[in-house]
Specification:
With 247 residues, the protein is α+β, with helices and mostly antiparallel strands. The chain has helices at residues 12-19, 68-75, 93-98, 159-164, 185-188, 195-201, 240-243; strands spanning 4-7, 31-35, 41-46, 54-58, 80-82, 100-105, 107-114, 117-125, 131-142, 145-155, 176-177, 179-180, 210-214. It is globular.
Length: 247
């Protein structure tokens, strides 16, 4: 799944040029590592505002949720939306049909498991460019509270991601975020797309266009936090024989 990402680690001007949208005057805070369960605001471009970069809370809250306790609970289970149930689950089907967005990240993290121990990897574009993940969004209202929220769509993995995301207890099998190729980003925001056309766009990103390396721990006492160094390569000798040409 996709629960850890990096974003806004470059200058604002870079994102405005890369995605053809204005960042506006919202606060700018680099996130070298963000965990989805913290429900941080992440940058998105929606189909309703395709020329504006906005910050939405990660974890979609459907408009039909009526109380704050349920909103908090459901947000923990909607960080990701599986492609094969996108138009079936009540939490996602309305947004999938008409409220799609680009989630702007510099890269994402996932864990590989070996001998009951997990090892974090950082995955990014081979050319170093930031990427757009396919997302869906909702606006939730409760009294005077108005919160814009988002889920990241996941799909089946390419071969490399299938090796990395091999969590033994993952009943759904290996997954990866749905990464849009640049030429398809505007199409994803097209409000006239039918559900079959939306589903047809979703699939694994070619592994030859990505690169990855192991990084320091993202959990536990040794976690260094949201600092630039968290994205840097960190060697695990016990994986060296399997990592090939990671570095």
């Amino acid at each position: 799944m996709c629960y850890d990402v990096a974003y806004l680690t470059r200058k604002i001007e870079y994102y405005e040029k890369r995605f053809g949208a204005s960042y506006g005057d919202i606060p700018f805070a680099p996130m070298y590592h963000s965990n989805g369960f913290d429900h941080m605001d992440i940058p998105v471009i929606t189909n309703e505002e395709p020329l504006l970069i906005q910050l939405f809370s990660w974890g979609l809250i459907p408009a039909w949720v009526k109380d704050r306790e349920k909103a908090t609970k459901i947000q923990n289970s909607t960080l990701n939306a599986r492609d094969n149930t996108l138009f079936e689950k009540p939490s996602f089907k309305k947004a999938a049909a008409s409220q799609r967005c680009l989630v702007l990240v510099d890269g994402f993290y996932d864990h590989h498991w070996k001998d009951k121990q997990s090892y974090p990897f950082y995955i990014q574009q081979k050319n170093g460019a930031s990427m757009a993940l396919g997302g869906i969004w909702e606006t939730w209202r409760y009294g005077e509270i108005v919160r814009n929220t988002v889920s990241i769509i996941t799909t089946g993995p390419n071969p490399r991601m299938a090796w990395i995301h091999n969590r033994p207890k993952a009943s759904e099998g290996p997954r990866m975020p749905f990464i849009l190729e640049e030429v398809s980003e505007k199409m994803w925001l097209d409000p006239t797309l039918s559900p079959p056309e939306v589903s047809a766009m979703i699939g694994p990103y070619p592994e030859e266009l990505l690169k990855d390396h192991t990084v320091d721990r993202l959990r536990g006492k040794s976690y260094v936090g949201n600092v630039p160094g968290i994205m840097e390569p960190h060697n695990y000798p016990e994986l060296t024989t399997q990592q090939g040409n990671l570095f």
